[in-house]
Design a protein that fits this description.
The chain folds into 2 domains: 3-94, D-Amino Acid Oxidase, subunit A, domain 2 (D-Amino Acid Oxidase, Chain A, domain 2, 2-Layer Sandwich); 103-243, no CATH class. The chain is 45% helix and 17% strand. It is built from 9 helices and 7 strands. It has helices at residues 61-65, 67-76, 125-141, 146-156, 158-174, 177-187, 190-204, 215-230, 235-243; strands spanning 3-12, 19-21, 33-39, 44-54, 89-94, 103-104, 107-108. A 5-stranded antiparallel β-sheet has the order 2-3-4-1-5. The longest helix has 17 residues, at 125-141.
Amino acid sequence: MLWGFAQRAYLDQTVERPIIVLWDDPRWRGFPGYGWLFPGLDGQANVGLGLGLGPIRTGAPRAVGRLDAFCQHLRTLGLLTSTVEGRRLGGWLKMGMVGTTPAGGRTLLVGDAAGLVNPLQGEGIAPAMISGHSAANAVVAGPGDAAERYLRILAAGPARYASVAAAVHAVSISGSPRRVAGLGRALTLPGVGRTIAAPWALYWNDLLDGAPPGPATLAATVAHRAGRLATWRSRTRRHLTQSLGG
């Protein structure tokens, strides 16, 4: 399994654009995930922390216990002006299709149930919609072999991304906090950040399929192919191959 956990809260503040924060907690000790400040409805904002845990779920309280410290960090940057009030919400994320057999017999799993949460950034709405649509098409095309058809769809689509992204997730979680902090600082250097922003957005958000031709698409494609080669013999790849019927 690859687990993630996210803790969020809401506050009264107008936020113009979404902000994702690679946070050192404390200095030169990188938080194994990221924080966010997102715009919401009716003048509200969504603030939270999400962290990757790998196969072990015991680290989830860190996101809960450090949310106030993260909010204080945002205040020192001038990004947060309100205080968090009311109920806080948390949830588990099963990521990267690892540890899940998504179909068998008369049962098809979609979305979070199939472990289709993006293992790099924790987003699950788009994969849930895509997998739900794919499962419906598999059933309409013929209920008798819908499970086999659905597995082939997943193997040709989400599993190709997950085979690389889940392996990257596992490696990043096992890295030392200092290494995580150094990587975050390197990625956000002014020259580096501007150069990699577009291909990073395409790949990190799994938007490469169908992206228009251009330098960003080419760079993201090269990165994905390099990742496929690097993870060719990984446990993640072997597991996905077995769970999707070879």
